[in-house]
Design goal:
Layout lengths: L2 H25 L3 H21 L7 H8 L5 H18 L3 H4 L3 H26 L4 H11 L4 H10 L4 H31 L6 H6 L1 H25 L4 H22 L4 H19 L2 H28 L1 H4 L5 H31 L8 H9 L5 H12 L5 H32 L7 H29 L3 H23 L6 H25 L5 H32 L5 H13 L3 H21 L2 H42 L3 H27 L5 H19 L9 H7 L9 H10 L1 E5 L4 E3 L7 E7 L2 E5 L2 E5 L4 E2 L1 H6 L6 E4 L3 E7 H10 L1 H13 L4 H4 L20
Antiparallel strand pairs: 1-8, 2-7, 3-6, 3-8, 4-5, 4-7
Helix pairs in contact: 1-2, 2-3, 2-14, 2-19, 4-12, 4-13, 4-14, 4-18, 6-7, 6-9, 6-16, 7-9, 7-19, 8-9, 9-13, 11-12, 11-13, 12-13, 12-14, 13-23, 16-17, 16-19, 18-19, 20-21, 20-22, 22-23, 22-26, 23-25, 24-25, 25-26, 27-28, 29-30
């Protein structure tokens, strides 16, 4: 084919893409629907021109359109990795993990159910072999990421709804394509009735093999990109190579799922990239991928749509009945999952609840598109598939795709409106009024400064100020006097605004590099969780999210287990250093929020709401300070090292700002500025490196700080440091239950606990112990002990505790004081020990069991 014609056709397609987006916005239909319709229209026109005798002038162009060297492999190996990879880079993974159960159910279970439902339904009404029917089921069970993501973003669907359906569309491609490969093999081998057990047994290998290949490829790519820290274009080039190498490597080298490999590579880069790349480099990389994905998504729709007229050319009336069967079976399978399995999982507390309107929108939003057509093309291009199977598979897949795009896609906005998902809730509506009022107050201040600077005429300024003031007064009045808002709603609005300002502050600090890129994603994710928790649960939801942000997670506890039992210290060291830096970053952000409460929220919601928010903020600061103080005691000096690093980064940022100002003022030229900027890059790289944390000797230092062991020599303290185990407890964690056997004694290093015994309650803090009474009396525990703050505890087993008790006078004093407070004769505890006189020496702490 003439290269000039091919170039003309491709350039025309890009022109078509440029026209389609504003056209879709004007017609208020999804962008992908317009692309598909335009592609079908172009292909139909090209076929008409080749078969008509009206003119031959446009035949070369028609032939160029129909003979484009595009095959199914181009869709699967060129366009699909681009779409999947970019979608994973744009995902908020930490928020998506909140809905991982419904996402996996829709992405895996729903695909399997839809495949077999459509397959067996077809086998009952058609003459196709079961393997071919199941092949059709696999083809139509995958939702298209480009269609789904673009449609839901274009209609401003609720964020949680978008997250669920975007996550499903990314992951279910892997499941559907894996099933497609299995059943395609059976069809090509002529196996009419496949062994389904054997087919499903290969499924985990495809999934886990692809995930491992994608993770490994991404780790290598991130390492390379970190090496090229000064070369942004080199980093972007490595990221462009990553999805294709991961896809091809998984498919061709280990026989796993290339789609899963691309998703795993994108997720890995999403998690590790922000901490290894400069913030601006990461932002630019995502912008480049956004453009690549836009082009790839548009081209895949247009090019796939070009094949639709040819795939439907040989359609018979009976085929349309089969299309109806496929549509009904696919929708029925989706209904079973959405309205049967998901509510059941919610009742069993295995999945967070998904509201019925959300499930209805997900049902109607499962659009098919270019991926489905590409798989159908792969069947029609195979020489080993029977002709009749090719014809029917192509027609059914094409007909079903057209139904989802034209019927479901064009009506999705209407369905969302009918379900009420496009309307703001009373809280959101009031929030929008609050935003307007706050924004207008800021605008008034800025306009006042502007009019003073430009010395405008007083009459003009006065008339415009009066007009603006009326609008501002009305906005403030609406924000203050919303008749449909209760007091708790006003508090919720204030918390949402406070969390939103916290997120904006974090973004400013990340841009200024006050907060490191390593911590950026985590603190931003926690800020967004605060917003959604406040929106859904009000004050209690906000407090739960705030408490969750400082608690010890499962990963941290797993690292402690590895350190205590297997002597693997690297995970604990890294996660402890992360926790140090995270808490310091949070403290930095929280201390900036007082001004926002006094300056903005107090104006809108009044003094009472502002005072309550100040109280909640003070509690958050106290939680962070308590957790940070625990780490300071355990690892003295490390927090100071991180603070020094923060000061160095701040100084470099200010230095960079000064150089830029001098360049803008003409004091230095471009050459001098470039030289200074390069020197700053090198110094910033050194300042960004976090000091290492050595956790090995820290336990003995922590033991040495406890007053109970003040009379022990250094050799004994070192032995104790090796004998103790460290336990980290969150607030409300149960440490000791009633009637359990007494085997360990707990010493509080940081934090606080509450003991409940026989209707009485004691609270113990740092330096105190509990659990010793039951051991010494050789009776089951009678106390219920729970942590009331994030706590670090040192735990000693019974034998070592008894040996230590014989050696330490201060520990004997503490035990005797605790016994007398409980009304227990000390002789019942330690008849063989010589106890010192408590009247002559005051015990270092009060203990209880």
């Amino acid at each position: 084919m003439d290269i000039i014609l091919i170039t003309t056709v491709i350039a025309s397609l890009f022109l078509l893409i440029g026209v389609a987006e504003p056209l879709a916005d004007r017609m208020r239909v999804p962008f992908t629907v317009i692309l598909a319709l335009l592609g079908v229209a172009i292909a139909t026109a090209a076929l008409f021109l080749l078969r008509t005798d009206l003119t031959n002038a446009l035949n070369p162009m028609a032939e160029a359109i129909l003979d484009l060297p595009i095959r199914s492999n181009v869709f699967l190996y060129v366009f699909l990795p681009t779409l999947l990879f970019q979608a994973t880079l744009g995902m908020n993974l930490r928020r998506m993990l909140d809905d991982w159960v419904p996402i996996l159910v829709l992405a895996v279970v729903a695909v399997v159910v839809a495949t077999f439902t459509v397959g067996y339904a077809l086998s009952m009404v058609s003459a196709l072999p079961l393997a071919a029917c199941l092949l059709v089921g696999a083809i139509v069970s995958t939702t298209d990421p480009s269609a789904v993501v673009s449609n839901f973003r274009s209609i401003s669907a609720p964020q949680r709804l978008s997250r669920i359906i975007e996550g499903e569309s990314l992951l279910n491609d892997a499941a559907a394509i894996a099933l497609f490969g299995l059943f395609m093999g059976f069809v090509m081998l002529g196996v009419p009735d496949p062994d389904l057990g054997q087919a499903l047994a290969q499924f985990p290998v495809l999934i886990f093999g692809g995930a491992l290949a994608g993770w490994f490829a991404a780790r290598i790519a991130v390492w390379l990109m970190a090496l090229f820290a000064r070369f942004e274009l080199a980093q972007i080039s490595v990221s462009v190579a990553l999805p294709y190498l991961a896809y091809i490597g998984a498919e061709q080298m280990i026989g796993a799922s290339g789609v899963i490999a691309v998703v795993a590579a994108g997720l890995t880069l999403n998690l590790t990239g922000p901490s290894r790349l400069a913030p601006q480099s990461w932002a630019n990389l995502r912008e480049v991928w956004g453009l690549l994905a836009h082009w790839a998504g548009a081209l895949i729709f247009v090019l796939a749509a070009l094949f639709i007229p040819r795939l439907l050319e040989e359609a018979r009336p009976s085929d349309f009945a089969l299309i109806v069967v496929v549509i009904v079976a696919a929708i029925a399978a989706r209904v079973v999952i959405l309205f049967g399995l998901l509510p059941l999982l919610t009742l069993l507390r295995a999945s967070p609840p998904v509201d019925r309107p959300y499930r209805a929108a997900i049902l109607w939003g499962g659009l098919r598109g270019a991926v489905t057509l590409a798989l159908a093309l792969a069947v029609t291009e195979s020489a080993r598939v029977p002709l009749e199977v090719k014809r029917v598979v192509g027609i059914l897949a094409t007909g079903f795709t057209l139904f989802t795009l034209i019927v479901q896609g064009s009506s999705l906005r209407w369905v969302i409106a009918k379900l009420g998902l496009d309307r703001l809730s009373p809280i959101d509506d009031a929030l929008s009024r609050q935003v307007v009022a706050v924004a207008l107050q800021t605008v008034r201040e800025d306009v006042a400064r502007t009019t003073e600077n430009y010395e405008l005429s007083r009459e003009t300024v006065r008339s415009e100020a009066k007009r603006f003031g009326e609008r501002l007064d009305e906005a403030v009045k609406q924000a203050e006097e919303s008749a449909d808002l209760l007091d708790r709603d006003r508090i919720t609005l204030g918390l949402i605004a406070l969390a939103g300002h916290e997120r904006d502050t974090i973004l400013d600090r990340v841009r200024d590099r006050t907060i490191s890129a390593r911590m950026a994603e985590q603190v931003l994710a926690d800020a967004e969780r605060l917003i959604e928790s406040a929106r859904q649960g009000g004050r209690s939801g906000y407090q739960r999210a705030a408490k969750r942000s400082v608690t010890y997670g499962r990963a941290f506890r797993a690292a402690v287990f590895l350190h205590n039992r297997l002597k693997l210290s690297v995970p604990l060291s890294r996660m402890t250093a992360d926790r140090f830096e995270y808490l310091l970053s949070q403290r930095l952000i929280l201390r900036d929020l007082d001004t926002f409460i006094d300056g903005r929220i107090r104006r809108i919601h009044g003094r009472r709401v502002a005072d309550l928010l100040q109280e909640l903020l003070a509690r958050r600061i106290e939680l962070v300070e308590t957790a940070l103080e625990g780490l300071r005691l355990q690892y003295p000096g490390y927090a100071e090292e991180l603070e020094r690093r923060f000061i160095r980064r701040t100084a470099l940022r200010l230095e960079e700002r000064e150089y830029a100002a001098m360049r803008d003022d003409g004091l230095i030229g471009a050459e001098v500025y470039t030289t200074l900027a390069q020197e700053l890059v090198q110094r910033r790289a050194a300042a960004e490196t976090r000091p290492p944390l050595d956790i090995a000797p820290q336990r003995s230092d922590l033991v040495r700080q406890l007053p109970l062991f003040a009379d022990l020599d250094d050799a004994t303290l070192r032995q104790l440091g090796r004998a103790f185990q460290t336990v980290y407890a969150n607030a409300d964690d149960i440490l000791i239950r009633k009637d359990n056997a007494a085997k360990r004694v707990f010493f509080i290093a940081t934090g606080a606990v509450e003991l409940q015994v026989a209707g009485q309650t004691w609270r113990l803090g740092p330096g105190e112990m509990f659990g010793q009474m039951a051991i010494l009396m050789q009776k089951p525990r009678r106390a219920l002990v729970r942590a009331i703050a994030p706590s670090t505890l040192l735990v000693l087993d019974e034998d070592r505790f008894r040996r230590l008790l014989k050696r330490s006078d201060s520990l004997q004093q503490a035990v005797r004081a605790s016994a007398e407070k409980r009304g227990i004769a000390p002789e019942r505890l330690m008849p063989d020990l010589k106890m010192p006189d408590l009247k002559a020496a005051k015990p270092p702490s009060t203990t209880a069991d």
